[in-house]
Each structure stands twice: as structure tokens, then as C-alpha cells.
Amino acid sequence: MSSDQTPPAARDVSTQEARMGDGADDRFNSTLREAFGSTPFILTKFDKFMNWVRGSSMFMLQFGIACCSIEMIHTYAIKHDLDRFGSGVPRASPRQADVIIVPGTIVSKFAPRMKRVYDQMPEPKFVVSMGSCTISGGPFQEGYNVIKGAEEVIPVDIHVPGCPPRPEALIYGVAKLQERIAEGESSPVTVKPYELEQFGDLEQDELVDKLASEIDEEDLVMRYNWNDSP
Amino acid sequence: MSLEKPSRDTALDVGVTEDGLDYDALADLLGGHILDREEHLNAEGFVIRPDEVQEVLSTLKEEAGFDHCACVTAQEYDDRYESIYHLRKYNDPTQELSIVVPSPKDNPHNESAARVYDTADWHEREAYDLVGIDYDDHPDLRRILLPETWQGHPLSQDYNQDQPQIVSLREHANPLEDDKRSEDDPDTMFVNIGPHHPATHGVLHVETVLDGEQIADLEPDIGYLHRCEEQMCQQGTYRHQIMPYPDRWDYISAGILNEWAYARAAEDLADIEVPEYAQVIRTMAAEMCRIASHELALATFALDVFGDFTAVFQYGIRDREIVQNLLEDLTGQRLMFNYLRLGGVAWDLPEPREEYFEKIRDFLDDLPHKLEEIHDLVTGNEIFQMRCVDTGVLSPEQVKQYGATGPVARGSGVDYDIRRDDPYGYYDELDWNVVTEQGGDNFSRVLVRLREVEESARIIEQCVDLLEQWPEDDREIQANVPRTLRPDPDKEIYRSVEGAKGELGIYIRSDGTDKPARFKIRSPCFSNLQTLPEMSQGEYIPDMIASLGSLDIVLGEVDR
Q1: What family does the database annotate (chain A) (predicted)?
Q2: pLDDT above 90 for A31
């Protein structure tokens, strides 16, 4: 080192600038790094940090049901590109997913399968219900075969109304979910009116007696009491 | 000129005359089988005995050339049940005949037609499921849309919608517990594909039995999206309450095509004349929907056969976004347009008109280049060709047996397009071609769709020319339609249009009120999906997935 060079410490620099250094390319100096200032350490609660991480990188379950799934595809794809918001990696297996978007009408035959898929997702898991059908049954609410909303079967964190919601609306819903996760809020997991249970555990009544010859005691079934639906 | 009708096989032309079918000649052919004759708006209905269905239908098929069993409608009257077989000809769908089969109220049953037309298999299962008619001699009469443990038949008169139901998960039994399904071959293995599976295009469940990697047996299990569309339409009034539902049958942006199916049936039922200007707008909008629908079919097909989420899929979606913007400008909605009204359309083209026309022309100008790109990426791609050429082959005979229509039929060389053969709207005034391919394989079906996009673009261009020059004082968008429509009681009609997936037909029976007494939807996907086992038997699993993709089914329309 030649003597005519001024040593860096002799210049009038702030600690922050010193930490950033000259050597590093400007491109590496993110806003986050600036915010850290002079210290490379952050003091935070572990939970808070984990929630921030969870909200910033969410794996969505690739799950299509009905009309809304077409708008959901558009949300993932070019132009709307949900990936920009840190939540656009569709996973084909529920075992790798954090978020399930429920995009469409749920009917009696599908609800047990949806519950199964939801149960297979690892905790913590979140649910965005997309479209009017998942809120109340939507335009098909009076149908003999239609479940009156996703919340009859699984807990829902965010409802996005619309028939179908525009991609912008879905992005807003997902962003709201991220906000809630980062703040550590989620809907309580409660017992829903329609649960998967063993046929043998059902309360005995006329219908159960009638089906006794068709269904095994151990078969998983879902019982719909339409009268109790909202 | 492809707009010419294909030549007819004259030996099968019983009762064919210059001005339509001569039903007396057909009645002579059937002789004593006919109990009574009814007038339906689209055709005559011959009432026959419930135990002579097979005999009558096979006579009509073999000797009078009715090779297309378009639909089976079942319904319950106060004093009887009734099944109607809507027969037409692939050569000329305007030659129609309805075979009406009454059955007694206390024990409704009649002979099955599944031995004559393979397609009747599923149609009769649906009739059994929803209305409750038993079909004797049916190969496999089970519920098809509702779970097997369902109680009651929801479209019959005494159904109580509030009774509890129990649905089991049994169809999804763990395959490992019982994987030797076939007794003769202990090596077979049972695999569930779906209903939650990325390659099923919605909530389809395919029960497959594999022998090694080849498919020994396959059965599509549907009904995971059966959302009571027919019931909804029977509860709505003709004038406004039904129109939003067709958008949700084939929800892949094919809304206007579906709305048109209802509009055409209801307009003919209530005798409404649609102004020409509105017909041109309808034609233009419908073809935009067809482009959007075929783009998605292509995008997801590429996703299926080479897992390509990055290039072809995004290209398809990119082009769809443009069409959807055009449709949004016109209708105010991206997907569920609700734009057609009985007697016309909801409103005129968006102002300023010149700007809108310019947007459409820009899109049409770019389209050839974009299609070329897609051809480079897809049809010219060696991997794609290896996957698609000569896989999933469907012969023209199978097409007719299963009542397949649309690109699936045209990909097998069956020259059948309702737009040309039974013209509606403004199609017969325009210059365009019906696309057919002879291969019958997955490749042909994709090619048909791509070439149909070009034809649709031609139609749109001509419509834009027409609309641009339309005199300003003659822009009538709706006919004068009474506020409440009450068609005369007991009028029956079956009318179809060429939807994105094929022949989309509607049967309506009026009872003098402002709501239909029976509203039956003939979905093209329902019939097309029936061909899947034929196409996949003995093929590898990936080829089955490719065949499924090339059928381009949409579950909202299969299950309704």
C-alpha cells in the first residue's frame, strides 16, 4: 500500500456508509440494508420474523374447481402475474402448499374431497375463498346439490366476492392475506357443520338405517343436513 | 366451396324432400309401432310403446339414416313419465325427429337405447339419476351425476330438497389396499386420477386400471361440479332470470356462445324476430368467445403434454387477455357477459365506435403472426408431434356412435358444424369455411382448433366491415319483446347452436307460465367425454392425459 493514499477511516463518513463500503456494488445495497444502518443485527421476536417470512413467500395449491379457476389462471399468468407479490408458485401437491384458493362452487360430491385435500396441507395453512359460490353458494344457492359456502366445510381466512372476481380483486385478497399473516392473524380452526366422519359414528336415524347395507361402518362419510344450512 | 352441404347417401333418405322431411313416409316406415304423433316446434314427435324402443330406433338408424342421437330428455308429467330421444343426421341436422316414450307413473321404466346408440348410455344414466326412470336392458344403470348414496331423484315432482343426505368417500378407497381389481390378471393396479389433479381440466375423476403402464380399463367419474343448472333454469323466468346461467355452463369465456343457445331456443319458442343488426353483433361477439376458448384449450393442452408453463401457456393467455379486453369493452364483463337478451343484445357497441373497431382490427392484424409463433412452438415441435400424432385415435364411426361434435368430430373428418348446417345468426351471409382434419388423433384435434381460430378471425373481420357501414338510423339492437313472456302451454322445442366444444342444444317445454316446465341442456362435452375410454384403451397413461386434453372438456358443462 503506497503512502500517498488517504486511509478510508480518515474521511468523514457515517457509520452506515462505512458498513455499506465502497467495494460493494450499489446494486447490492437494498432498502433493507439501508434500513439496517450501521448494524448487521435485527432485534425482533422470532414469531414476528417467522410470520414475516410466511407472508412473503407463499406456495399456492394448484386447485381448480369452476369458473373462478379461469380467472385464477389469469391471475397467475402473464399480465397479472401473482408471483410479483411473493405468492405465485402453484404446487400440484397439497403437501407442499401453504395457501389454498377455493375457486368455485362446491357440491355435495366434492366437499369430502376438498376437505381431504385441505387436511393434507401442512400447518400453518391458509384459505382464500374466491367468488360468491364459496361465500354462500352464489347463483346456485338454491340448488339441491350445492354447499352453501366453503365455510361449511373448511375455515376461511379471506373472502373475495365477485362472480367471478377480477384478477385484480384476487390479488388484493391475497395481499390482504399476506398482511394478516405478517401480523400473525388467522382464522380459528373450528368444527364445521359438515365434517368427515366414520359412518358408524353417525347418529342413528331413518337415513342411516336405510344406507346401512350400502356403506361400511368404517367408511368416511359427510352428512348434509340441508335444513341447518344458512 | 366448403359451405356446400356434403353429398348425401341417398339409400338412407326415407322421406327426404326438397322442403324438409316428409314425416308421413317415416311413419309408414315404422308402421304399427307409432301410437300417436306430436308436433314439436323443431320436428315431429312419434309416440311409441316403452318396450319397442330398440326396434324403432334401430330401424330409424339403419333404414332412415338417423345416425346422431343428440340428446335424451326425461321429464315427469302429472300423469306419466316421458323420455324423448332427439334424433338428427350428421349429414343434415335440420332433418330431425323426436321419439317420445311414455312410461307409467307408478313404476316408470322403458327399454334402453344404449344398444343402438352408445351415447344413450350416459344420457339414460343421467335421466335415471335426476328424474328416476328405469331403463331395462341398460348395460350399467347407476347414478352418474349425484353420489351413489343419494336419496331420491331431484327433478321428479315429489323430491324433498331439505332431506338430509350422506355422501361417502368410498370411490376414493386407498388403491394400495385393494389394487388387484381384475380377477383374471393379478398384475393390474387401480389408480385414481382426480378429482383434484392438475391434468384433469377441472374436477374430473378418472378411475383407471393399469396393466404395467398401459390402461386396461378406464372410467370417467363425473358429477363433482353438478350444480343443478337445469333446476336453476326451471326456477327462472324466461325474460331475464335464465340468461346469466348459460355463461356458467362452459365458463372458458364461451359465454356468448352459450347464451346464444338459450336465446335461439327461447326466441323460436316465443316467436321473436331478432333485428339483423343485433345478429351481426352476436355473431361477432360469439366468434371472439370461440377464439378465447380455443386459445385456452391450446394453452392447457401444451401444459398437459410437455408441462410448458412458461412459453405456450403464457402465449395463449396473452392472446386471451386481448380478446377478453375486447369483450369487456363490449359487454362490461371479462368472463360472465350476460350480454344477449331475448330479441337482441343488451346494448350497442361501445362509443367511440371507430376506436373500438380499430382495436378489433389491431387484434386481427396481429393474429396471423401470433398463430405462426404458436405453430412454430407447438405443431412444428418434434416432441409435441411424437406425443400427439397417432395417439388417441377416434374413428368417424365412433364419433357418430357417441354423438361427439365440435372440434372432436371435425378432427376425425366428420363434417358437422351447426353454424353451416342449421344456420342461425348471420353466418350464412358470410364467407368462411368449416375446418376438418382426417387424422382423428390428438394432433388433428389441436390443428382443427388452431385453424378454426383463423376462420373465426375472418368472420369477425366481415362483421366489423358490416357494422362500420351500418346506417345510423337502422341500428336496432332489440326487438320489441313483452315484459313477461308466457309461451303457449305444451310447446316443446329442441334447438342447438355450435358452441366452442360442439353442439350445444337446449330443450324447453312450456306450460303457459313465465317459467319453463322442463329445461334440458344437451352439453357437447358430456357426449365428447364418453369417447375417452375408446381412445385410451391399451394406450399409455400420458397418452390418455393428452387425449383428455385434446377433448377440451369443461366440467361445468359436463356436469351442469
Answers
A1: Belongs to the complex I 20 kDa subunit family.
A2: no
CATH fold, domain B14-136, is Beta Polymerase; domain 2 (3.30.460)
Contacts B244 to A, Cβ<8 Å:
139
Whether residue A173 is found in the same domain as residue A137: yes
| Minimum CA–CA partner of A226 in chain B | B162
Decide: residue B469, CB within 10 A, 0-12 exposed, 13-18 middle, 19+ buried.
exposed
| Mean of pLDDT values over B222-243 | 90
Count CB neighbours of A109 within 10 A.
Answer: 28
For B275-299, the pLDDT digits (tens) are 999 999 999 999 999 999 999 988 8
Are A68 and A169 in a shared domain? Answer: yes
CA B364 – CA B367 distance, rounded (Å) = 5
CATH superfamily ID and name for B229-559: Cytochrome-c3 Hydrogenase, chain B (1.10.645.10)
Q: What is the pLDDT of residues B160-202, one digit of tens each?
A: 888 888 888 876 665 544 545 556 666 677 888 878 877 777 8
pLDDT over 80 at A12, yes or no: no
Q: How far is CA A218 from CA A215, B173, B455, in A?
A: 8, 11, 56
CB contact under 8 A, A112 and B169: yes
Amino acid sitting at position B22: D
**A203: domain range?**
196-228
Residue bearing cell 361449511:
A152
Between CA B525 and CA B90 the distance in angstroms is 17
Q: Which among B232, B233, B225, B223 is positioned nearest to B251, based on CA atoms?
A: B225
CA A64 and chain centroid, separation: 14
CA-CA distance, B527 to B530, in Å (whole number)?
A: 5
CB contact under 8 A, B321 and A109: no
Domain-by-domain residue ranges, chain B?
14-136, 229-559
Q: Which of residues 180-199 of A touch B (CB under 8 A)?
A: 196, 199
Residue A147 resides in a domain: yes
Confidence of residue A1 (pLDDT cuts 50, 70, 90): very low
Condensed to tens digits (0 to 9), the pLDDT of residues B36-64 reads 888 888 888 899 888 888 888 888 888 88
- Pair A100, A208 in one domain: no
Specify the CATH number for the domain of residue A157. 3.40.50.12280
